[in-house]
């Protein structure tokens, strides 16, 4: 104890500069990481784009610097995720460099020990090199899906990608248990953009001083070992981040608290919580199949319908008139939920998710089994691992069809068939809690990270 408080004293007077990718699923873990490192004695500066900026008043203990990201206003960024990521990397260099250089020259501030930036913001490696500042990387996704990204050159060489529709069900023998349809790609007008972003993320990760992961060793040991061999830089699995601090204040949309009072009125483990995260979208037909599947399942449901979830609609217009009313309060729909509190609520019995990595981890940490409906990129790998490796969920294999939805919900939540899955996820919840406790693997990795940061300075 005395030793650690002495170390903490030494770290006081050292500043870390963190730069998140400005998307909800990346901002949340970066700000959690900032809290974790702050609690270990570092001062924290967040550099952020003006776009999608979190509210600094929720983080009075951090310093914020914003810059204008210089993106084209022709709508490309709103409709094409990969173009957006690619443009961030090509356009943000000069304003980010300017912002960071200013920060480094401020003599009134503590000296900066290193930059920690999102893996997808790979352009920052070059800027850090120029400014002679070490860069650590935060990868907000799973280690398992990162192994698939590192295999992209091989997957291209062997003809798996670009994906051909006729091969969707074929196994990828090099990466079991993945099938071609589980590979982390996304529909984009120009696949070259996707390859560029993936290669940038992997190669500039290798050029960094180390990678921090929102995962834990007991969950992804084999993937972490593979990456340890492939990347050649230190790896720090210190997750699950969100369990280190009680509440998250980095939501970009207001979280509808009515969820909690509605959940209070439901029976234990009876509710299916449905949310597809901040980016995924469905078409109107799929939306209606989801609605009818939920209604026919007879389970109470809490459904996040984000404005923008249904392509071509503002919000709930496609629902038949009186649809929710006829369910007599069995269904509650909100625009955005306090997801961590929802998953921790005793009334929730299952999570129908798109398997974004944050949602996947948040579900596991509360012992909630999943119905997996991945949409794109790493969500597909996560879903396959949830159903086939960790076996804490089932995947909707035949797309969105109301009969299958109804059967899957019943199987997972009520029938005997789902019992093992329900038990297994409770076991995983315990493991996740253990790794953060005294002597746990993530605590140990965090100690290693703190030492590593000190060694970068000397
Ligand atoms: N989230 C939330 N309210 C919602 C839906 C999601 O607060 O109604 C949070 C969720 O807890 C998670 C993040 O938004 O931390 C979504 O990240 P994820 O990686 O699951 O998916 P993405 O949005 O990046 O696709």
Q: Topology of this protein?
A:
Elements: H1 2-11, E1 15-19, H2 24-39, E2 43-49, E3 63-67, H3 76-79, H4 81-91, H5 93-105, E4 112-118, H6 124-130, E5 135-139, H7 143-150, H8 152-157, H9 191-206, E6 211-213, H10 217-231, E7 235-237, H11 258-264, E8 271-275, H12 284-297, E9 301-304, H13 323-326, E10 331-334, H14 339-344, E11 348-353, H15 357-365, E12 370-372, H16 378-389, E13 393-395, H17 402-413, H18 419-436, H19 441-457
Parallel strand pairs: 1-2, 1-4, 2-3, 4-5, 5-6, 6-7, 8-9, 8-11, 9-10, 11-12, 12-13
Helix pairs in contact: 4-9, 7-10, 7-16, 12-17
The structure holds uridine-5'-diphosphate.
Uridine-5'-diphosphate is lined by residues 24-25, 28, 251, 255, 275, 277-280, 304, 336-337, 339-340, 356-359, 362.
Count of extended strands = 13
Helix content: 40-55%
Q: Calculate the mean pLDDT score and round it.
A: 95
- The largest beta-sheet arranges its strands as 3-2-1-4-5-6-7
Q: Which small molecules are bound? A: uridine-5'-diphosphate
Helix/strand/pairing category: alpha/beta
Q: Poorly predicted ranges (pLDDT <50, ≥5 residues)?
A: none
Inertia-based shape: globular
- Main pleated-sheet profile: 7 strands, parallel
What quaternary form is this?
single chain
Over all CA atoms, what is the radius of gyration? 22 Å
Q: What is the first-to-last residue Cα distance?
A: 24 Å
Strand residues, percent: 5-15%
SS element count, helices: 19
């Amino acid at each position: 104890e005395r030793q650690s408080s002495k170390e903490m004293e030494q770290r006081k007077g050292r500043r870390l500069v963190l730069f998140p990718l400005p998307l909800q699923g990346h901002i949340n873990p970066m700000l959690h990481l900032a809290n974790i490192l702050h609690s270990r004695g570092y001062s924290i500066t967040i550099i952020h784009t003006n776009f999608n900026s979190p509210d600094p008043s929720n983080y009075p203990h951090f310093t914020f610097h914003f810059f204008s990201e210089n993106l084209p206003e022709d709508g490309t960024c709103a409709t094409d995720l990969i173009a957006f990521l690619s443009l961030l990397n090509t356009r943000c260099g000069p304003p980010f460099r300017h912002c960071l250089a200013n920060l480094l020259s401020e003599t009134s501030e503590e000296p900066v020990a290193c930059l920690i930036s999102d893996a997808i913001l790979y352009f920052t490696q070059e800027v850090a090199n120029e400014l002679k500042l070490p860069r650590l990387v935060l990868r907000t996704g799973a280690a398992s899906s990162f192994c698939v990204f590192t295999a992209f050159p091989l997957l291209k060489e062997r003809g798996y990608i670009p994906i051909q529709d006729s091969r969707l069900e074929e196994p990828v023998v090099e990466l079991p248990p993945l099938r071609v349809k589980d590979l982390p790609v996304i529909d984009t007008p120009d696949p070259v953009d996707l390859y560029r972003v993936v290669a940038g993320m992997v190669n500039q990760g290798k050029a960094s001083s180390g990678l921090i992961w929102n995962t834990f060793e007991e969950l992804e040991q084999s993937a972490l070992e593979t990456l340890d061999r492939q990347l050649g830089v230190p790896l720090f699995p210190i997750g699950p981040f969100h369990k280190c601090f009680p509440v998250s204040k980095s939501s970009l949309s207001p979280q509808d608290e009515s969820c909690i009072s509605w959940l209070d009125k439901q029976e234990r483990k009876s509710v299916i919580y449905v949310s597809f995260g901040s980016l995924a979208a469905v078409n109107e037909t799929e939306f209606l199949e989801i609605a009818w599947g939920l209604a026919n399942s007879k389970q109470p449901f809490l459904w996040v319908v984000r404005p923008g979830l249904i392509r071509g609609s503002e919000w709930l217009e496609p629902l038949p008139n009186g649809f929710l009313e006829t369910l007599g309060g069995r269904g509650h729909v909100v625009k955005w939920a306090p997801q961590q509190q929802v998953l921790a609520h005793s009334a929730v019995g299952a999570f129908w998710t798109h398997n974004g990595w944050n949602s996947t981890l948040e579900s596991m940490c509360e012992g909630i089994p999943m119905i997996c409906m991945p949409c794109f990129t790493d969500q597909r790998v996560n879903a396959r691992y949830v159903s086939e490796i960790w076996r804490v969920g089932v995947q909707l294999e035949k797309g969105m069809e109301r009969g299958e939805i109804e059967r899957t919900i019943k199987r997972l939540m009520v029938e005997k068939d789902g019992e093992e899955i329900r038990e297994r996820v409770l076991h995983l919840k315990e493991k996740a809690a253990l790794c953060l406790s005294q002597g746990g693997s993530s605590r140990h990795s965090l100690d290693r990270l703190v030492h590593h940061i000190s060694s970068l300075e000397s």
